[in-house]
Amino acid sequence: MAARTYHANRASCDAGMTLIELLVYMVLAVVVLLIVGGLLINSLTTQRTVRNATQASNAGQLVAQSVAQGVRNASALKVTAPIFGGELLTVLTASMTTPQTWSCQAWYFGSGEVRTKTSSTLIPTTAASVANWTLLGTGMQSVSGGAVFTSTPLVNPRSVILNLDVSTVNGKPVRINSSSTSLQPLPVPVPVTGLVGLPCF
Description:
The protein has about 200 residues and is an alpha+beta fold.
């Protein structure tokens, strides 16, 4: 009798898992893996979207900062549009160094790009010359087909509104809207070096 009980206990210990138990465990493992995989994919997609939006925002802020710095130090400015399919903002701007010097600075928007150039003389604005200007950003577009650079000569002749969208890879474009006004006093003081009448326009 004892031998029969020993063999019965040994047989139940060696039986292992049944096929149904194995299938249940596999289904549970697949469900857990699907949940974890879904969370991982959503996390990676969100990370990519945030990274693209951040890059677009940084590019737009670089353009806005460049324009704001030039306009804040400007004694005069001019917006020209259209110019070979784009827009041109030109300023006569003072340096932030002492003694103060004057130079011409321009920004061109066209073909989805914003480019800039600074010179101590008149800046050539042909299509070939603009292609060699410093590239500030790509993926830029006007907001609803409107102007990117808007001057308000009747309200403030030395103020510019920058309004553009920066496209992202798979998301909503980042809108950049800023207003810059010259801080140069009127009448413009005669600088120690350079010419106030520098031919920028």
